[in-house]
Design brief:
The structure is a homodimer of 256-residue chains.
Chain A: E1 6-10, H1 18-27, E2 32-38, E3 57-61, E4 67-71, H2 75-86, E5 93-100, H3 107-110, H4 112-122, E6 127-132, H5 142-158, E7 165-170, E8 180-183, E9 189-199, E10 205-215, H6 223-228, E11 231-236, H7 244-249
Helix pairs in contact in A: 1-5, 2-4
Chain lengths: 256, 256
């Protein structure tokens, strides 16, 4: 690839979130950037797509003087519209984020940020999702931009496979206090739900989903372990959900 | 387990869809059934959860004289509310479906049906998603009910592991023409997007997401292959998204 690469950028916090601007700023050094992102926050959207409602896509000025495309749908919709309608040629790389909040362990499954990247991987386009372990929209992303640069540099050097998907989680530390980079596995764990039950002015119950992360994995090669130790975690992911060991084990089952 | 098992049932087509009634009818023979399902269609919701809006859950009469709980959220929300609020003890098994339409190959990622089951598996509860390869709400589910019975019988006999997740796809055939049952892997493939672009009465463009499935996998042990040959496909799934081969391959990368 000798031409300037085209880099498609999306996210799940919406086109005006600080995270995407920081990602754009770091990625511009590596190629021509096209921004297609949701017009509103889409956190927790998992790999949702818009089946029953039509989508809108409109040009939108974003705060650093650049123009992007806002989509009235999910992160996965954004990538589908970008590759299916907007771009004449598939982009060379898809980036998503920088998410305001961690996407380690099972949050990978609920994450809208990662679903944009996963949609790219399904289409055979190398894709990377970035998440900073700080939920605030005021978070300082100076270190995160530097992390993005380091990862893009090595990714272009090593050449990512067509369907490669990386999930990068960045500890909430200044760059000089980040210990380094680790290639990790997704930690097993779960969110333990604690619903906040309330009663509306009309006497009807409703529930806010809250919850605490319950660690179920003490291995030292996980995303959770790396982050807790002050490392950037890079988890290569697949979208093949087959449980191969179970598949072998079940071959003798008799359903007839 | 000597007591009557508790079976939680959800879906993504909504609590009044014919599919869930058929699933309930088949599952009742195996335990005490509790129904918690979305109050509206949630197709394509992937593993979405409701982060920014509160949830409602209300008792609802369903058409076969049974009572269920309707939830104003996603399939994953339903399972979270059922285990976190409604049930005192975790259910012994979670079933989702019967979906009106196939959930083979990459549709596993977009599927709301499977996300309800996957949410169960994350919580350590064995879970099975059922999908019939017929999108019509008028589809004849006589054979599907029989398939559910066969699979539940063997699943109880073999004892599913705590985090087991099975995705069952049923060919659209009468039971006596179904060739048998196959334990399969998820076929690789993708949807090729063909957006239907229209213009609204105000002159603004909008897009309907449509698409064709593009097969990228000729192996004979896939869900797609089994279905095309007239077999019920049973794919054991994991929610560990780590790409382990990539993980080994990338250990020498240098991001510093």
């Amino acid at each position: 690839m000798n031409q300037t690469p085209t880099i498609l950028i999306s996210n799940d916090d919406g086109i005006h979130a600080p995270g995407i601007l920081n990602l754009v700023e770091a990625a511009r050094e590596f190629g021509d950037v096209v921004i297609v992102a949701p017009d509103s926050a889409q956190s927790g959207m998992g790999h949702a797509i818009s089946v029953g409602k039509p989508l809108r896509m409109y040009k939108e000025e974003i705060s650093n003087g650049m123009t992007g495309y806002a989509v009235s749908g999910t992160p996965a919709d954004c990538v589908k519209l970008a590759t299916g309608v907007l771009l004449e040629k598939a982009p060379d790389l898809i980036l998503s984020g920088i998410n305001h909040g961690s996407n380690s362990s099972v949050s990978s499954l609920y994450s809208g940020t990662l679903s944009a990247a996963r949609e790219g991987a399904i289409q055979g386009i190398p894709s990377i999702g970035f998440s900073l372990c700080n939920y605030s929209h005021e978070a300082d992303m100076t270190a995160s931009r530097e992390v993005v640069r380091h990862i893009l540099r090595e990714s272009f050097r090593q050449k990512l496979n067509p369907g490669a998907l990386l999930s990068v989680n960045i500890p909430n530390l200044p760059f000089d206090r980040i210990k380094g980079f680790r290639v990790t596995r997704m930690a097993m764990g779960r969110w333990v739900e604690e619903f906040d039950q309330r009663v509306d002015p009309y006497g009807q119950k409703y529930y806010w989903l809250t919850g605490k992360y319950a660690r179920q994995d003490d291995r030292e090669d996980t995303d959770e372990f790396a982050l807790a130790a002050g490392y950037v975690s890079i988890t290569p992911m697949t979208h093949d959900l087959t449980a191969y060991e179970e598949m072998s084990r079940m071959q003798h089952w008799s359903f007839d």
